[in-house]
Write a structure and sequence with these properties.
By secondary structure, the protein is an alpha/beta fold. Helices cover about 35% and strands about 15% of the residues. Strand 11 and strand 12 form a beta hairpin. Helix 3 crosses helix 11 and helix 4 packs across helix 5.
């Protein structure tokens, strides 16, 4: 287990401050170049937002590495973690892209299928599109996208298209994460923030009168997953979905270098991976603090918040994989 210290000042150690504050700190706006592609089902358009580096094409492919970010639930290229990572990737001289899951990034779905935490076929499809254009691909996934990427790395093994992966704040055991989210603060603060937008999108989609009634009564993510996510994506119940979509059982099968970063105080997570749960190609980096995709520090010399802990760990890991 890697021990790379993350030690914020005492007044930043609260997990809820770590989780909520980044949304208000990141002010940079980035000029992404957007391309639309069809999803793996050839039903819906999905948006890929690129930041390109100066590069040359050799045999039709860019030679500098591409860093791919798989966003979290209801995330996008405008999420604070995407913009923070993008700046570091630009500084390193690499290409950057955020492929959005179906219905995210402002592009509505055309079919009945949205996205879920275990849809590795969709990730493989996205990476396949990118492999046609880029010689070297590194991938990072956060939260829901982190679980999907970790599962992908184990499920696809040597066929995984990216050279290596970094997984951050991932609910690799979805059932226990669902329980964690239903605790008092999670239910009062985080659940409405995540649940309300996705319910609104679902209500705008092709749904029955019974589904509409049930969705309007949903009070937690478990309700939504039982009513909508599970049946829409071929699972018989939320428990079936959580069991099949969780990355934890697949971590032993990972054969390409993978770094999993988790804060012990993450309010979104339940059971997390331990050394005996993963293959020899997986590095576990566990910090005492950091919240959920937070990891905010403070530089007293410059009197500024620092949000580069995760991007720096990720880029160092990618460069070490070469």
């Amino acid at each position: 287990m890697m021990n790379t210290t993350f030690a914020p000042p005492f007044w930043l150690k609260n997990p809820h401050i770590q989780t909520i504050l980044p949304k208000f700190l990141v002010k940079d706006t980035l000029d992404y170049e957007r391309h639309l592609y069809k999803d793996s089902l050839d039903e819906s358009d999905v948006a890929f937002d690129y930041l390109l580096a100066d590069d040359v094409l050799v045999d039709g492919k860019y030679q500098k590495p591409l860093v791919v970010l798989f966003h979290g639930m209801e995330g996008s290229s405008q999420s604070h973690y995407a913009r923070t990572l993008a700046k570091q990737v630009q500084t390193a001289g690499f290409h950057f892209v955020v492929p959005h899951f179906r219905s995210c990034g402002g592009v509505a779905v055309s079919g009945k299928i949205f996205y879920n935490a275990g849809d590795t076929a969709e990730l493989h499809h996205y990476l396949g599109i990118l492999k046609q254009q880029y010689q070297t691909i590194y991938a990072m996934g956060v939260s829901l996208g982190g679980n999907a990427l970790a599962k992908y790395m184990g499920e696809y093994g040597t066929d995984a298209i990216c050279e290596c992966a970094v997984v951050v704040s991932a609910p690799v055991d979805l059932a226990s994460a669902s329980i964690a989210m239903d605790r008092l603060l999670g239910k009062k603060i985080y659940t409405p923030y995540l649940l309300n937008p996705i319910i609104k999108k679902a209500l705008d989609n092709q749904i029955t009168a019974d589904e509409i009634t049930a969705l309007k009564r949903a009070k937690c993510m478990g309700d939504f997953d039982n009513i909508f996510t599970a049946p829409r994506h071929g699972f018989v119940s939320k428990n079936d979905y959580y069991r099949q979509a969780s990355a934890l059982p697949y971590l032993k099968e990972i054969v390409k270098p993978t770094l999993i970063i988790t804060a012990k105080d993450d309010p979104f997570l339940g059971v997390t991976a331990e050394r005996g749960d993963v293959s020899s190609q997986v590095v576990l980096l566990t910090t005492e603090h950091g919240g959920h995709i937070g990891f905010i520090d403070y530089d007293y010399a410059t009197r500024a918040f620092c949000m580069d802990y995760i991007p720096k760990r990720a880029l160092a890991f990618f460069e070490g994989c070469v």
